[in-house]
Amino acid sequence: MENLRDIPGITLIALDVTDIVSIRSARDQVAAVLGEGKGLDLLVNNAGMAVSSAAIDTDIQLTRKMFDTNVFGMMAMVQEFIPLLMLSNDPCIVNTGSTAGLVPYAFSSSYNATKAAVHSYSDTLRLELKPLGIKVTAIWLGGVKTNMIQQKPIPFPETSYYAPIEALVRKGRAPPDNLMTAEVFANSLVTASLKRNPSRRLKLGSGGSMMSWIAWLMPDFIMDYMVYKVLGLGELARIRKSAAKAN
């Protein structure tokens, strides 16, 4: 983000959403930049981390850290920045969810759960803050070319029941080459969020709109079959069945 430092009108502020002291420091710095009695028009909760692993193999400490970042950090940000938002004439909160919170995207169950929590929290928060004049929207995000999506996956444990299909899982979960860039995503987010009446749910990122419709319209058994086949789970069932016969 250093490339933003010299752009007029932009102030970079350090923030760790898992640390309440850091959040309050950032809030106070934002208040100082805005000036006495000035309000914050837009709060975007976009901090996040992802862990890709089978549910029964996932490190619980990593899962706790992910919930701290993706869910509890977001909640703390909302609580601490409410006073500044209340000073604005047209405030809005945007929370970044994901299409992963809509579909049973195997081998990221913990991450999926954090994003489903973001969706549910945002829907309820929208109703609670409506009489206070604060709008709330959630992003149902598809693919965006960021450092998070390009990080190396955690290797399957050698003792994992899923080790025989690790290569198939990696192939099935590989991101496409034509992901939306972070710059396009940021521009789309700001443009949509600053509308007089922003959508309750913004479908952004590559495949964001399509996956949202699929999750709504496709019967569960078809969705389950597609994920089961694409991510090699059917092959694992075949391997285990063959092994059982051999014994």
TrEMBL record:
Belongs to the short-chain dehydrogenases/reductases (SDR) family. The keyword NADP applies. One of its GO terms (biological process) is triglyceride catabolic process. Transmembrane segments: none annotated. The keyword Mitochondrion does not apply. Pfam families: adh_short (PF00106). This is Uncharacterized protein. GO terms for molecular function: acylglycerone-phosphate reductase (NADP+) activity; triacylglycerol lipase activity. One of its GO terms (cellular component) is lipid droplet. Keywords: NADP, Oxidoreductase. Gene3D superfamilies: NAD(P)-binding Rossmann-like Domain. It comes from the Eukaryota.
